Structures are given as structure tokens and as C-alpha cells.
Amino acid sequence: MTHISFTVPGEPRGKGRPRATRMGNNIRLYTDAKTASYENLVALACQQAMQAASQPPLTGALALSVFAYVGIPKSTSKAKRQEMAAGLIRPTKKPDLDNIIKAVLDGLNGVAFADDVQIVSIIAEKMYAPNEPRLLVSVSPLERPHDLP
User: What fold does the segment set 4-141 form as a domain?
Assistant: First the structure.
């Protein structure tokens, strides 16, 4: 069993709030179109990586790594832009890192693994992209448990 790594091009998106619509006497919750589209983009990038490596879906306990590279605003000064690209200044703007993780997990559900309950370890960072905004994702089997405190 190996790992799955892939890149999702473009500005990282977070999971949007669920939307509600009334159907008769019932209320139905659904995912907005932009979030659903981004989750499908994550799933497609994962499927392509898995097909290229002839990798079946992963089983057992898994670790997820997510590195979100967000674009540097156009209005940023050259000095500040260099600090952002070097990682000295981190993005404290939307999307929230936890919402990015939720979108990734929903996109990978049923593709990279059977269910996101298999994810037992997450490493995630959000930083500015010196070049193109993107999302780097890696899913791998948890090889050995961490020592408990």
C-alpha cells in the first residue's frame, strides 16, 4: 500500500455553509454550487493521480496532509510581497484552514478512501503562493501510532 499525492490548481476554497430550501413541510440542506464544484475538482485531481499510479483506494487508518497556497493580493507592496513569498507573513484571511480541510475530505470521500472516518491524523498549513495558488494534498497509511503524552 502506498500513498496518494496530488495538486489541485487554483485558489484554495473552503467548505461553504450548508444552504437550506423548503420542500413542502420539510427543509432540505444542500451544498452550494461553488463548494460542490471545488469538491469535484479535488476528487478529479485525486482520481487522475490514482489512475496514473494504478493505486486502489486506501484502507485502514490514514494520515492527511494539506498545504494551501493562496494568492498574494495584487495591491501588496513589493517588500511585503517578498516577505509573504518567503513565508514570513502568513495569510490570516478567508478561507479558514479548517474549512479547506473539510472541502478536501468531502472531495476525497469515496475516492481515495471509503470514508473520512479513516483519517486519524491531519497536518495542514496555509501560506502565500510565490507563484500559482494551489492545494497540495497527500493521503498515506498511518505506519505507526504516535507516542501518547
Answer: 60s Ribosomal Protein L30; Chain: A; (3.30.1330)
